[in-house]
Amino acid sequence: EMKGDKDSTGSFTSTKSSPSDPDAFLSQVRDRTQARLYDAVSFLPGVDAEPDLSYLVRTVRAILATNDEIWERCKGKRCHHGSPDVSLVDLKRGLCFRRISYTKIVAMSRSTPSGWPSSSVTQLHFETAAERSVESFGFPDGLPSQLSSIIVPRMNPDGIFTDYTHFLESTLLLHKDILIPFLACLKEHLEIQQVYLGKINRWLMEPEECAAFIEENFGKKIDIPEELMCDSSCKERHKDDAICANCKRPHGEHRPDSPYSSAGRHICPGWGSNQRGLFPLSFGKPVLLKSCDTPGEHRDTFDIGKESERERLRRFLAFIFYTTSEC
Ligand SMILES: [Zn+2]
Ligand SMILES: [Zn+2]
Ligand SMILES: [Zn+2]
Ligand SMILES: [Zn+2]
Predict the structure, then answer these.
(1) Looking at 166, 181, 202, which one is the last position of a domain?
(2) Which domain holds residue 309?
(3) Biased-composition ranges for Polar residues (predicted)?
(4) Which residues are in the CB-under-5-Å shell of ion ligand 3?
């Protein structure tokens, strides 16, 4: 559908210079539109090899399929307003995603009494703990105005992405002279979108990479929990605005577990209620991965989400194995 409105540059439908001859008018509109589209693509028409129509249709559909697949994988981990672990500020900055991961390994020396007075054995502990994190990825780029001024996009029901399948179908009705640069421009936009989605996907895949690293280097299988929740009898003082998974009311409205102690507040609000509240935790309980009798004092943290840190930990483990027989 052609947009009859004047666009921001005012050049699209300036009736003053329109020729009265219909054929001349038609080709003038097409030439202008074509020029604007070629302005928006990275190749130079007449200089670079121009992509042909079937190549463009095939490529655009392939990128669309991949982008859909990535989004399907990621969207379940998206935080919405009302999620207990995301602030309104984060949500205004972009799409936010949540993950639970074992991304940090702490190596720490612990002294254990050996039975003899004043003597102790130093043990080196390698520990990790599940950690909840939320990351904001900014918003995806909208369609370039060169495209949306020619075909008005429809949004998907999620309100985030354009309904590209519908958009592509409408696009195919354009005159071929317009269609080639139009699809070239759409292709470049979708490639940018793939980079955006890829960033989210990589961040969400990191927990699995970390678990694989742990299994490989410590021989321990790590299950990544779907959620990190307190057991509704914990002694942790949750944040007052933490939302209860049971009654959806904030922690601050919950009553103390016992009238004699103020340690935990897990009784859901409501007259005579004995429902127990469940609140999200930022960290799970520490998991001991390995301990060995190692003389000397060590204290180090390894962020195994990064390859450089994984390499540093591999070297450290090799050093410990080399200097310690009991490990
Ligand atoms: Zn929402
Ligand atoms: Zn320990
Ligand atoms: Zn609790
Ligand atoms: Zn509750």
Answers:
(1) 202
(2) 104-135+208-323
(3) 9-20
(4) 230, 234, 279
